[in-house]
Amino acid sequence: MALTETPRTVEYTCQQCGWTGEFDARFAPWCMAQDHYLITKDEQQKSATLKKRERRRQDTARRRGEALQERLLQADDLRPGGAARLAAVSFGLAIHTLTLLIFIGAVAALLSGLWPLYIVALLGFGIAWVVRPRFGKRPGSGWIKRGKAPKLFAILDRIGEATGAPTPKYVSFDGRFNAGTARRGVRNEPVLTLGAPLWQVLAGDERLALLGHELGHQVNGDTTQSVLVASAHRSLGEWRVLFYPSTHGRRVSRGTAGFGQLLLPVVLFPFYLLMTGLQRFYGWLQVHVSLRAEFLADDIAAQTASTNAALALVRKLDTRSSVEVYMARARTAHPTFRKAPSLEDAMEMWIGLEDYIQTIPEHEYIRAARISEYRGTQIDSSHPADYLRARLLKGRPPRGGTVTVTEDEWLSVDLELASYVAEAGRAILLRR
């Protein structure tokens, strides 16, 4: 399964400014001197055809992110402010208190002894069940425990000791070009999820920065990711569904019942507006808590591995589109209609990915970073754009790193994780 290609360098002359230089023939030419042809016509047309609402949302997110990054350049402490964290806790308490009041009201109606109130009690119990707080399931057998990967957990212990973060109890690999940390189960245990494609393209110091960033989320003051607030946000989504004022797709009855159906959206609309307002307030919390906490997690990554390693990690994140193209080609190249992919096929794919990443030229990283800046790319609303993360890391005092991991240690980690990474790759090859 040969998925890598041999680069072919050609000479290119910019028609706008006359700049001449060598260029990899696999990529669309652009002028590195003036960014000519960097933003293609397709990219510009795509931006121009966005709906006004979507363009306004993107512009607002860009302005907020850039303003926050500029403020943090001058800040002594990157931790989210106490007022914003208090607002997040108040948001969580308000949502769950409403659910508790409905449950108490349903119990009171049930104990009243009046049979008409039994219907009210049944309705109240149903609503309380739908919007109840939900906790992530406790990790099962597919997760990696300390005894299965002692080398990896030894590195996590050292990072936790350096940052003050708790060591994850469980680790897992999936097929995303991403990583994440959370707390799961009733015991609120920290867990770590690593995307196998991202893990495979990172070098040792970049992996260390990634682990420092993710463990940093456990101590960066992001109250929006706490059990209280995160579960409240999920409950709020259920509230909005319940109060959505629409009869679309429903058959309207005749007579009094039909009038009631038409009147119901009017009655629900004020409650829907209230829930929408709370949803927007949560968006405000993400800007003042989550985005700032992400910047702090980057700072913790620099403290763990060094500023240069954290910048290298952000740079590798810009290869997302290239990696996704590679994975799509890998799935197409494997004949799954004849036989199911084996673990050996998956490891061959990962080896090919590592070779492929090495062939990406420097100017392509520059182009990807500048396109990211043009788009204001964010993974989601709680993550700042990569170019802002790089700016802040460069603008803050440089860090040397407090944790070191040798190449032999990383080799030992790769050996003990090989079967889990291969299984994640096999799942990617099976995906259609």
UniProtKB/TrEMBL annotation:
Residues 161-395 form the Peptidase M48 domain. Gene3D superfamilies: Metalloproteases ('zincins'), catalytic domain (3.30.2010.10). Pfam families: Peptidase_M48. This is M48 family metalloprotease. GO terms for molecular function: metallopeptidase activity. Its EC number is 3.4.24.-. Keywords: Cell membrane, Hydrolase, Membrane, Metal-binding, Metalloprotease, Protease, Transmembrane, Transmembrane helix, Zinc. Binds 1 zinc ion per subunit. Belongs to the peptidase M48 family. It comes from the Bacteria. It comes from Catenulispora pinistramenti. InterPro entries: HtpX_protease (IPR050083), Peptidase_M48 (IPR001915). The chain crosses the membrane at residues 86-108, 114-131, 256-275. Its cofactor is Zn(2+). CDD domains: M48_Ste24p_like.
